[in-house]
Amino acid sequence: YPGTNNRRGIGFDKPEDNYPSSQLSPESYGHTGFTGTFFWVDPKNDFVVVLLTNRVYPSRTQQGLYDLGIRRKIIDMVLANPDQ
Question: Is the overall model pTM greater than 0.70, yes or no?
Fold first, then answer.
């Protein structure tokens, strides 16, 4: 929704500040799931990442995925080493 403070597009998240990574272009988009699943597409950088996790195991109080910035770290690592 251009011109609003909503980070959602039509069915997808749009990047905001450093989320999910400062290395992704403004044209990128993705979606996150309740259990920690995540996908993000950046057509400008020819980049796609899919992260399948289960943050609700063994309990729903698990916050390590967020507290440790795992998603951002994975994206940054992959973008820093595109040929590996």
Answer: yes
